[in-house]
Amino acid sequence: MLNILNLNSYYGDVKILWDVCVSLKEKEIVSIVGANGAGKTTLLKSISGAIRQKDGTIEFMNRRIDHLEPDRIVEMGVIRIPEGRKIFSTMTVEENLELGSFNKEARKSRRSMLEKVFEFFPVLEEKKRQMGGTLSGGEQQMLALGRGLMSLPKLLMLDEPSLGLGPLVVKKFFDIVKRLNDQGLTILLVEQNIQLSLSISERGYVLENGKISMSGKGEELLMDEYIKEAYIGM
């Protein structure tokens, strides 16, 4: 579904990603893990077209997307949930969700998708008239995910979804992510909680200093001695 070959991305004169190669099959969960500043968010921004200064190739569904505008990439079904949630705090929960169905295809399914989001997140239906800024951190993350689902994603990219959330909320959120995948949604997950992310992923890539240093099955990476020592503290 997604094939990235020799991707190099820059901020001005600073090179952030170095010859990154990543592939993702349909209906997989794949994790990109690594420390802060490794280039994980830059990778997702590059895929979604938010970073224009890059070279290499990015193919989605056998079509190159590395030179497309972000809105065209969204229309193709590549949806990024940004780090820090980025909801509209002075708009209601329902208005936030409706903004997710802005492209033409998603607008056609707005009502049915809204029902599906409320089915996944009953608390959002209960608070649909509340301002987004009044929600708890976990509820805001659910709202951000729900808004992404409203865009009819074929590939959903999650950037640090556990950031700032308590352990119980994180577990509940990841349970929902796994349910979405079980229903056929392909997910690319960027996450600092390496143990949790790799445990639900078919495969993973370790990104260090802008380069892929390791890759393999999620369970195999979790058992790797270097991963245990460097990232899990075992």
Characterization of the model:
The protein has 11 helices and 10 strands. The chain is of the alpha/beta class. A hairpin with a 2-residue loop joins strand 9 and strand 10 (211-217). The longest helix is centred in the C-terminal third of the chain and has 16 residues, at 167-182.
Mean pLDDT: 93
What's the CATH architecture of the largest domain? Answer: 3-Layer(aba) Sandwich
Q: CATH homologous superfamily of the largest domain, by name?
A: P-loop containing nucleotide triphosphate hydrolases
Strand percentage lies at 25-35%
Distance between the termini: 35 Å
| Structural domains: how many | 2
CATH class category of the largest domain:
Alpha Beta
The gist of it:
With 234 residues, the protein is α/β, with parallel strands linked by helices.
